[in-house]
Write a structure and sequence with these properties.
The chain is an alpha+beta fold and 204 residues long. The chain contains 3 helices and 12 strands. It has helices at 66-86, 92-97, 112-122; strands at 15-21, 27-33, 98-104, 107-108, 124-130, 135-138, 141-144, 146-152, 155-160, 162-163, 168-176, 182-189. The strands form 3 sheets. Strands 3, 4, 6, 7, 10, 11 and 12 form a 7-stranded mixed beta sheet that branches. The protein has a 3-stranded antiparallel beta sheet with strand order 5-8-9. Strands 1-2 form a two-stranded antiparallel ribbon. A hairpin with a 2-residue loop joins β3 (98-104) and β4 (107-108). The protein is globular. The N and C termini lie far apart (39 Å).
Length: 204
């Protein structure tokens, strides 16, 4: 049975669900927006990451509903990335999700904004599709296997975090602090130990 993406589109009050074919053998959920798309409105850059979440719910405290909230935040994160990759929005919502001490794919502090922006510029049309539902693996940690696609000089590219032919069995893992801000985003082995949050600022 082929994997099916489960991103359900949680990018704002104006979103609607659409089904898109990504050319990778399974259906995917993607965010589409009515009336101008909130994400397409460019905001002034912040002088400090995570100073104020401009989207409701990004800093919601983690409580008894933690598992569902973490899964929702993971889908929000993917939705924002895909909107930026399609050109429907900017990366600002992702920057707003970050705590001041965040480590995003090894980028920290003031290097997050230019580093992530450059990565998206180099990977034209970058899209991420869930292979399965995000799984909560720690008090503030959620992870998911995924496929990413983009174009390189007009040629379609595809990379799957799960590939038995390599073999490869990786996931994208998101760690949040108690206030709901992103502390760390990384791609790790699916069974990698959960690291303490304070390790995020110590990683290279």
């Amino acid at each position: 049975q082929q994997p099916k993406s489960v991103v359900d589109g949680r990018c704002g009050e104006d979103e609607m669900k659409t089904i898109a074919m990504a050319g990778i053998g399974f259906s995917s959920w993607a965010c589409a927006f009515q009336n101008g798309a909130r994400l397409a409105v460019r905001r002034p850059p912040m002088t400090r990451l995570g100073r104020a979440a401009r989207f409701a719910g990004l800093s919601a405290p983690i409580d008894d509903d933690t598992p569902e909230k973490l899964r929702d935040k993971a889908k929000d994160f993917l939705c924002y990335k895909n909107a930026a990759g399609r050109g429907d929005g900017t990366l600002d919502p992702i920057f707003d999700m970050c705590s001041p001490s965040a480590n995003i794919y090894g980028l920290k502090g003031e290097s997050i904004r230019p580093g992530l922006t450059d990565f998206f510029n180099q990977h034209v049309g970058l899209q991420h599709e869930l292979i399965s539902e995000p799984t909560v693996v720690g008090p503030n940690t959620v992870q998911y296997p995924f496929v990413k696609t983009w174009t390189d000089e007009g040629d379609a590219q595809r990379w799957s975090s799960i590939d038995p032919n390599k073999p490869r069995n990786k996931v994208e893992r998101l760690d949040f602090d108690a206030k709901g801000y992103l502390v760390r985003v990384s791609v790790v082995e699916s069974d990698a130990p959960i690291k303490p949050l304070h390790d995020a600022t110590d990683e290279l």
